[in-house]
Fold this sequence. Notes:
48% helix; 3-stranded parallel beta sheet
Amino acid sequence: VVVAGFNFGTGSSREQAATALKFKGIPCVIAGSFSETYKRNAFNNGFVVFECPELVTHLRTTLSNRQPTTGGPEITIDYARSVLTVDEKSFPFPPLSPAAQELIVAGGAENLVASRLRQKASSRERTRLACWRTFFFGRFHLTFLLFEHRNALCEALALPQNPTRLRDALR
């Protein structure tokens, strides 16, 4: 976990600023505040960032080693309660928005959009197949509901494509 100061990510509008840390294996960044661009890029790439200014202030006052990079105490993150715990002290952080949570769970915007498109296509295919079955077993009264799929259905069932002949074939 990286704990940073305030305005983390300021000056970088590229998504690589967030993805570099993610692909290095860092699970999340906790900072006093973030550049809005960095935060959006992080969530869009499925990278977790938390704003917790109280924690940053606490660490600044308690850490004796003030090197630019230093090991710190163990941090426990309670996502359900939106609390970070360090040195047996709890620090609340704002819960992630539903949109941010959805992006993180999906692994980023690209994965989220791809999964939604797959669900939509799958749903359309199930609907089309259900209509075909209803059409096939319900006879010709659904012919016009499936007009856009009629030719494909007729080919699949080796039926005539002319509506009148189709109706006669299904009687």
